[in-house]
Each structure stands twice: as C-alpha cells, then as structure tokens.
Design brief:
With 155 residues, this protein is an alpha+beta fold. It has two domains: 47 residues; 96 residues, 2-Layer Sandwich (Alpha-Beta Plaits), CATH 3.30.70.60. The chain is 49% helix and 25% strand. The chain contains three helices and four strands. It has a four-stranded antiparallel beta sheet with strand order 1-2-4-3. A hairpin with a 6-residue loop joins strand 1 and strand 2. It starts with a helix and ends with a strand.
C-alpha cells in the first residue's frame, strides 16, 4: 500500500461522508418531528375527557327517564296543542331516534290558519321541537294536511 492509494481512500471516504450528511439531516429531522408528535399525543391522551354537553339547554329539553317516555310526552304535547287549536291528529307514531333525540311521525289536518298557528306555537314554545321532512297538501274542503317528523331533545 502506498501513500497515493491511502490518500485516495481517505479523500473518497470524506466525499462519501459529505454526501451522506444531507439525507442524515433529513432523517434526524423526521425522527425529531415523530417524537414531538408522539409526545403531544401522549399528553392529550393523559388529559381527562371533555364533559358531555347536552344538545340543548336543559330547560328546552323534554325531561324523561327514557326514550319511550320522552316520545309519549312529546305525543301528549302535540295532542294537547292540536285539541286546543282545532286540528285533527290523523297519525302519531314514533320515528327513528338517535341518542338524546326523540322523533315522531305526524299527520295533521284542519283549517290552514289553525294548522299553521298550531305548528308555529309548537316550534316557538317549550320544549324545543322542530319539524323536519315535512310536506303540505291541500284538502278538498279548503283545509291542509301536513305530514312531518317532529324532533325534540330529551334528557
């Protein structure tokens, strides 16, 4: 082994080490980011979960022990309002519900002004009730028929 081959080997090694510093820096930067992300996730998992908030203000929800009693209370509310407004309740059946929400399928008919006033009073009053998927049709005697789903929150 002579000096020229040793010098060539050293120079080649230094050039190779210099070329590998860029990928090494990128790899170390990625490792640092991954460790920071892992630490942030571990810290967020260590926090207590957020408290479950009600869908609506407790004063606006139907107070009931279970979904069935909430549906019965909503049905009674609709029947009472319909009787006082002179509106006929043709159909009142439970609909698909989700957690904290009760749904009723209703079919109401009567004079147009009475039906609209009743539904306006229901939506403006308490408990908070909204209509979704509703359809209005005219009747032969000048009245209207409404097919709708009534949705209310319960607790």
């Amino acid at each position: 082994m002579n000096r020229a081959s040793v010098a060539t080997g050293l120079i080649g090694g230094l050039i190779a080490a210099g070329l590998l510093t860029v990928p090494l820096g990128d790899a170390l930067g990625g490792l640092w980011d991954a460790r920071q992300t892992r630490a942030a996730l571990a810290a967020s998992l260590a926090l207590p979960p957020d408290p479950v908030r009600p869908l609506v203000d407790p004063g606006l929800a139907i107070a009931a022990g279970n979904r069935g009693s909430a549906a019965r209370e909503l049905a009674a509310h609709v029947r009472t309002r319909a009787a006082s407004a002179g509106v006929l309740v043709e159909t009142l059946a439970p609909g698909p519900s989700s957690p904290g929400i009760v749904t009723l399928r209703v079919r109401l008919s009567g004079p147009e002004k009475a039906v609209i006033a009743m539904l306006d009073g229901i939506e403006r009053g308490t408990p908070l009730i909204r209509l979704r998927n509703w359809r209005v049709g005219a009747l032969a005697d000048g009245g209207v028929r409404i097919d709708a789903e009534m949705v209310a929150a319960w607790r």
